[in-house]
Design a protein that fits this description.
heterodimer; A: 205 residues; alpha/beta; Oxidized Rhodanese, domain 1; 5-stranded parallel beta sheet; 9 helices; 47% helix; elongated; B: 190 residues; 4-stranded parallel beta sheet
Chain lengths: 205, 190
Amino acid sequence: MSKRYIFLAGLLIVMSLGLVFVPAKKETIAIHPKQMLIKINNPARYLSTYEVAKRIVERDPSLFLIDVRPKEQFTIYSVPGSINIPIKDISNPEWQDYLDQDGMNIIFYSNGDVSADKAWLFATEQGGDHLYVMRGGMNEWYRSIIKPIPPEDTAPTEEFEKYAFARGACAFFMGSSASIDNSTMTDKKTVVVRKKKKKAAEGGC
Amino acid sequence: MVVIIVGLLTFKKPMYSYQLSASDMMKQMATIQQITPDKAVQELKSSSAVFVDIRNIYDFEKDHLDKAINLPLPDLLSKESKKMFDQWKKDGTQVILYGNDEREATTPWMLLYELGYTNTRILSGGYNYLNGLLKGDLTADVAFDAEQPDYDFSAISDMSRQNQGETDDNVKAKTVILRKKKKKAAEGGC
């Protein structure tokens, strides 16, 4: 009886030695490739410029905009309230906190939507959640919000509603009548909710 | 004992495993040369590269590049696709992915590259641009470089700055104080 135990214990020790020769595991992507492909194939991550503008105007507190264009372009003009993480620096660990925030909807945008989509893939592979891409990027933002084209007379009512909204949103963003609103939007930049803050609730009864 | 042996025997290697981490991918991406439409035209003639069409079957049936193989996006990692990709990798054949525009092929390509298929590239500008180039009717709204700013954005910021006027700084200071007050109010218990 005891001999058998000794044999089993010895066998386990020998087998465990094998682990010593297993190569060190590199930092890998946790999400399964097929799962990732399903996410890539899902168009739900794309938000139209209208949806984004609407959320800004409505002061959606869960909205977090990330501009992935180069810094020079960001300083010239950006969507109000957004922060800048250039796509070439996005793998820098210092941005990790920004890319995975609890309770925040992160929206990436660039001039088109190729770079924003790349950023989306990166953040998703890092385990981020609630990540979105602004469809059409800044070019579409300009076309649909800043300089909206009036719809034709035969267009559906929806188009007119969109146009009316864009006109209003444009006044909001350009600060023609609402300069105070505009500056509060830019102030929002500095607020970063880090995950670490999730400590037990203070006080209470 | 038996459990361990059975476990060892039935242990299957996963079909796909990542060869690159997400951050390595982002670092390497900047150095990878994609296929320009001009180069793609040459490749179509020389037929040394394989074109993979990731659009759905209907789009593919309607029109596609000569000699392109249709692997719709949802089937990109299926067993049959894997066989093909493995073969191309073994032969060192260059694989050119394309969708309607560049965006459609970008994230699938990144995934394939991370899985170790480093012989794959994207067709810049996508099918829409190349098709226009081949047929000689490029319309203005089909861009080759999707990341090019189409408009002068500096004009917008000038305009909004003018509208906001000089009182901007004062307003900003005020709002900061407002926010602090809010935080204090939230701290209390019951």
